[in-house]
Amino acid sequence: xxxxxFNQIVYYQFETLTxxxxxxxxxxxxxxxxxxxxxxxxxxxSTVGDDQDRVIxxxxxxxxxxxxxEADTRTTWQVHGADVVRALPGDRPGGPPPKADGIITxxxxxxxxxxxADCVPIFLYDPSKNAIGLAHAGWRGTVAGxxxxxxxxxxxxxxxxxxxxxxxxxPSIGPCCxxxxxxxxxxxxxxxxxxxxxxxxxxxxxxxSHLDLWAANERALRGVGIQHIEVARMxxxxxxxxxxxxxxxxxxxxxxxxxxxxxxx
Length: 265
Ligand SMILES: [Zn+2]
Hints:
The protein is an alpha+beta fold.
């Protein structure tokens, strides 16, 4: 990924998506916001105990960094499943956003936003149909097929062909740090079959196995015909100076934002 700065904000972009003309995107970090303490500082999560005015200010800063209007952004209430919603033009509805872990649109200047602290953000762009998608996949979402569900929705709603879709697997907790228990190993094995490349033996002084969510999601996307996949290979738990990590920070942390939008230029 390429690192970018806007005022005090630090964000990353996938090389493959940056090379595309039709979209704006960014994986934000925790840098450049107004939140304090464990939320220091660009927390965009409103359900983690941070001051709501600061969260709103941080969301404005994130939108400003990519020259989009925060009032146009669309998001979901992320619930670790695989439901997908379609973002449509018109006024943003009041109240909580729909419960879903995938969101798609083919409407310009309707930025899709999600929030992360160890789960995997999956970016999808189909330049031939001018459609975009975003998925949120922790281990539950990975088992449920959140990334696949977004690809399937893009195929069904916009007529996308998987071979035309460009995918980005963003920063999340990496195989270096993601210790998992038997219930997770069981669920991953049920979903993926051979897990030799997904589950690694304990390292260092650890006793638990490690799950590679990057490889699991890459394999899932390849399995539905996606050929162009850029994997960030950036671990949130190893890099809490830049990212929030729910695991490393024992739940007392914020959420960094990711955003993708069609057009705008
Ligand atoms: Zn790590």
